Amino acid sequence: MEQIQNLLNQIAIISNKNAEILDATGGRFNMFRVCGIDHYENKHSAIIAEFLRTNGSHGLKEKFLECFVTMFCNDTMKQVFDCENASVDTERSVDDGRIDILIEDRNKHAIIVENKIYAGDQREQLKRYNNFAEREYGNGNYQIFYLTLWGDDASEHSGQEVDYTCISYQKDIIEWMEKCACIGMRLPMVRETIYQYINHLKSLTNQDMDAKSKEEIVQLLCKPENLDSAFSIIENADGIRYYIVNKIFLPKLTEICDELKLKNVSKECNHDTEFPCFRIVKESWNYFDIWFEFQSKKGLNGHLVYGIIAKNTEKVNLATYKELTNRFNGNYPPRFDVYNEFLPYSRWGKDAMKAITGEEMANIFKTKIEEILDITKDLDLDM
């Protein structure tokens, strides 16, 4: 244990040094975060679309779009897409939905980007966009991209049998932006704005530490005398998360429920748990509970949604359920669950763990629970 503690102390020194560098160089300053666009997908779509526009204010015409097509499009689209004569729209209304980013050339070729930061998929969302594209452009004349923070697949109900390409902010958009910064090197305002956005995306995807500091930590962990301790820490990473969730967060959630006259019936998560979920009971509700769930096949690395879940779907009043769906965003109507996306954290990463060990996550949960109670206060959920 002493060797592990010494190793942690050395890592802390490197981490603190990285923080000092950020402070000394102004590396923490970022107007994108100041303006509060962290989780607003339409804002990120607007930023990306502006870089892609041939008439964009960057003044580099089709250069950024050409770079995007070269990096991400399939061979067919690379050959046929006319970047020089392309238009870019955001929030384009189509059949029962809005396409986040739609890029069209004059020869009826199209690139569709569905942008997800923290929100879940709408029912058959990519299927509807694919149907629109087949009618509008014809098979083989378009490509659909599914853009998320981490490069996740679309949900089965949204993307099943749809040919789409996953790209991520974590890797792909950052790499594209880095190439764009090189393209715009001689334009200081454009270049520095790109670097600001890259830093913002790195912050959103937990990549705040600079490459030199990461290399120092890797070299430290790889020293022969540190390998046993390093792997002991790695092997207990899930245990750390489970302890924080079960022993630190659940008691806080119970206190919140007691204060709001609710009951926390959440079970402790363990290595057999597919994903952490939290069930909160309001005794007067016969057929619904309040529910928080980290949705992911990867367990602790999923998106957090919150809302109301049906206890007994056979007895749910359909009129009440329909009204609930109207009041929430209704991402999962066939399951009689009514969910909204949970914005501040999408993964059980460092920031989420820090928020849990402090008071931030508990305060967020309390706010969301109160929001649910307010949304449903005039509905009869005893039926």
Could you describe the 3D structure shown?
This protein is α+β, with helices and mostly antiparallel strands. The protein has 2 domains: 31-204, no CATH class; 237-375. Helix content is 48%, strand content 17%. The protein contains 15 helices and 10 strands. The protein has helices at 2-25, 31-34, 41-52, 63-72, 75-80, 125-137, 156-159, 169-183, 188-204, 211-221, 227-235, 237-259, 318-327, 350-357, 360-375, and strands at residues 86-94, 97-105, 110-115, 142-148, 164-168, 263-264, 277-281, 288-295, 303-310, 337-341. Strands 1-2-3-4-5 form a 5-stranded mixed sheet, sandwiched between helices. The protein has a 5-stranded antiparallel sheet with strand order 6-7-8-9-10. Helix 12 crosses helix 15 (360-375). The longest helix is centred in the N-terminal third of the chain and has 24 residues, at 2-25. The chain is globular. 30% of the residues are buried. The model is unreliable at 297-301 and 331-335 (pLDDT under 50).
Overview features:
single chain; 383 residues; alpha+beta; 2 domains; 5-stranded mixed sheet; 10 strands; 48% helix
